[in-house]
Amino acid sequence: MHHASVESVATALAARHIATLRFQFPYMERGSKRPDPPKLCHATVRAAVDLARQRTDVPLIAGGRSFGGRMTSQAQAEQPLPGVLGLAFLGFPLHPAKKPSQERADHLLQTRIPLLFLQGTRDELADLSLLKAVVDRLGKRATLKLFADANHAFHVPARTGRTDAMILNDMMDAFVEWVDSTVQGPAKA
């Protein structure tokens, strides 16, 4: 919740008049590196969505960075998250590093709302050809926005002439554009 990249995203969205509700999973609260069981993560996502619904009446987009996005999509696939009109992923972790697979995306077929994948082209947790195949399988409800030379943390090498801040700016612009085209009126998540 207080990780620099998550705070940067929240700040960038706030500058675009999009509110965020950040939360963390219990294992992060405890300072553990071992993730909680999926059921606990899904319950945590549901609690965060419920809190967001209590605090505002604007359309909701749920999602997250890496593991958080995957747990959110699993929760949505299991049982739709009330009031959530779309899911956005910042670096969807399609597979472990150096173990290409599409199995972590199988549950996405059970989601019935728009999906946005913001992904670096050098993401070691998402082989690009496999991710593109997943997005193709999901059809019109899935949108993939690629960020050249960015890795899973959306870091780009200096030799590209681009900075991480530029990538973040481009990502947030892509997110706002997707929200505007997906949700009627301005959305706050």
Topology, element by element:
Layout (H helix, E strand, L loop, with lengths): L3 H12 L10 H5 L7 H18 L4 E6 L1 H12 L5 E7 L24 E6 L7 H11 L3 E6 L16 H19 L7
Parallel strand pairs: 1-2, 2-3, 3-4
Q: What do you see in this structure?
A:
The chain is of the alpha/beta class and 189 residues long. The protein has helices spanning 4-15, 26-30, 38-55, 67-78, 128-138, 164-182; strands at 60-65, 84-90, 115-120, 142-147. A four-stranded parallel beta sheet has the order 1-2-3-4, with helices on both faces. The longest helix is centred in the C-terminal third of the chain and has 19 residues, at 164-182. The chain is globular and about 45 Å long. It starts with a helix and ends in a 7-residue tail after the last helix. Mean pLDDT is 93; it is low at 185-189.
**Structural shape:** globular
Treating each run of at least 4 consecutive H or I residues as one helix, how many helices? 6
| Residues in helix, % | 40-55%
Largest sheet: 4 strands, parallel
Unreliably modeled segments: 185-189
**DSSP summary, beta strand count:** 4
Distance between the termini: 15 Å
Structural class: alpha/beta
Please, what is the average pLDDT? 93
| Strands side by side in the biggest sheet | 1-2-3-4
- What's the order of the H and E elements? HHHEHEEHEH
Computed over alpha carbons, the radius of gyration is 16 Å
Strand content: 5-15%
